[in-house]
Design brief:
Shape: globular
Number of domains: 1
Mean pLDDT: 93
Number of helices: 7
Number of strands: 6
CATH topology: Pyruvate-ferredoxin Oxidoreductase, domain 3
CATH architecture: 3-Layer(aba) Sandwich
Strand order of the largest sheet: 2-3-1-4-5-6
Length: 187
Amino acid sequence: MKTVNYVLSGLGGQGILFMTKIFATTALNKGYNILGAETHGMAQRGGSVVSHLRIGDTKSSLIRAGAADFLISMDESEAYRYLPYLKKGGKLFANAPGDAFPDKQIAGYLDRMEIEPRAMEASRTAMELGSPKSTNLAMIAFYSAFGMGPLSADDLRATVDTNSPGPFKEKNLKIFDTCYEVGRKMV
């Protein structure tokens, strides 16, 4: 299989490493090879955190600038910071207000690079569903609604189901299903 590159970004405490685990576990369950790398930076102080995940046959865990198929960001400013990693025609998913994203200052760049931006207020949705720490699951579900890449919504949901501790399973699946539907309405 052709290598598919994911860059996951956000701030310390937002669950970037858990997101990476869900994507990586799903890929492994489907029989794909994976390589990944995380940069923690100032994670404990709310600093930038980025994770690279490569699905398919590859020799390096790091993704070069201009080579990522997908950028999934838990924070709007981190989405802009890691935008150079997306290749021409890449897909951008951000936890940001859909009506104000992307910022007008980068719209020209996105157009030139044929990057498709998509946004939802995942943190607000997770908060409304009573689980503000599940913004990462909300973003995974939102991404999955568009049917892009080698991991289907059903595959990702099954991994969330399997990896959610008992007391949180029902709430995590509700967040996944709700945010998946938000994304489906945008397709």
